[in-house]
Structures
1.
Amino acid sequence: MISKKMEEALNAQINAELFSAYVYLSMSAYFNSSDFKGFANWMNAQAQEEVAHAMKIYNFLLDRSGQVVLAAIDGPPTEWESPLAVFEAAYKHEQHVTSLIHNLVALAIDENDYATKNLMDWFVDEQVEEEASASEIVEQLRLIGKDGPGLLMMDRELAQRKFDPAAGE
Ligand code: FEO
């Protein structure tokens, strides 16, 4: 069993992960319509990874005989000024998600809920990677600036990313 308080907090995190998927799908659509297909691909893979994160918590709640309650998902932003602005927003978003995960760790410790604490340890590690990959792209885009060939090369590089279905494991 899981406490009501922890159950509500995990349901809120399912919503936050699905909102993240919305954010990245919206960014993917923005890149697609700006003809940056590689950036769009990267964002699409990221969105799928967010759904895998949501499902990891969803399945955990069911395993713990908790109730999954899916709430409405807010609409994501739809416009950005540049590829750099998109990735800066993605990086900022991941920093926010990290703070949500850290709050869940604190709650699990407070509740002596070791199973949830274990699950959250996985997410703590995952957030280190999430922030690192977004921040790395931000740094590269800052170096590239308005250089067209540089942007094109980067777009080609990010076209290589493939969603790994094992990402949530
Ligand atoms: Fe599920 Fe990007 O954090």
2.
Amino acid sequence: MNNIQFKNTSIAYTDTGKGTAIVLLHGFLENQKMWDNYVAPFTKKNRVITIDLLGHGDTECLGYVHTMEDNADAVHAVLAELRIRKAILVGHSMGGYVALAFAELYPENIKGLVLLNSTAKADSDERKTNRDRAIKAVKQSYIGFVSLAVANLFSENNRERLVEEIENTKKEALKTPLQAIVASLEGMKIRADREVLLHLTPYQKMLVLGKKDPILDYEETKAQITNTEVEFVTFPDGHMSYIENQEELTKILLQFFKKI
Ligand code: MLT
């Protein structure tokens, strides 16, 4: 694990392999460990960078609101340090929101984009209200909030089959400090709508969704790629395709990287 200083904040990352760079960005309450099973297959042909986003894993908090743009700037600082000019970005959920902010801020540095269980849409009013509820809930009961939030990421039919994986995800999530949870919820709440990027950007893009995602409405999220060139992949399960559909997802991502 390496780190750089960005705005007086330590940002943790890993850098393995050679070739076109792939940057893997985790979601809310996760950290770069989520990619543990992906780094080995991906580094056969590519250079793989994993980054702990603000307040997650071994990266420190930057403030009380972590905007998607702050996170994108931190990602950009890591790539600048590594002298990587162009990269393929893969973002899981909140990591996808960060990848989109990066795509908007640094269009010359992006070569491909994968939104994994993520969306280019901004929060609806209902989701914004839910963010405020979540902020209250986590302040009242940190452990209760994290446990429930993690269980809710998996499709219901997988909650028995994947007991161990859910426990593991919870254990990692509980490393995220309260300040980071609140700052991320605030940042996600105010994020911009970036659907236009799905239409107007020249590089290859892919959207991966789980049909039973308890967090993202499948039909509504899928609708945003109508009349775009974005490749689309559906899995039958929840928000955690990287666990629930690991083998298939690995294959699909490798195929996507090969094309670029
Ligand atoms: C995530 O998994 O990163 C978040 O739950 C996404 C969100 O809340 O919008």
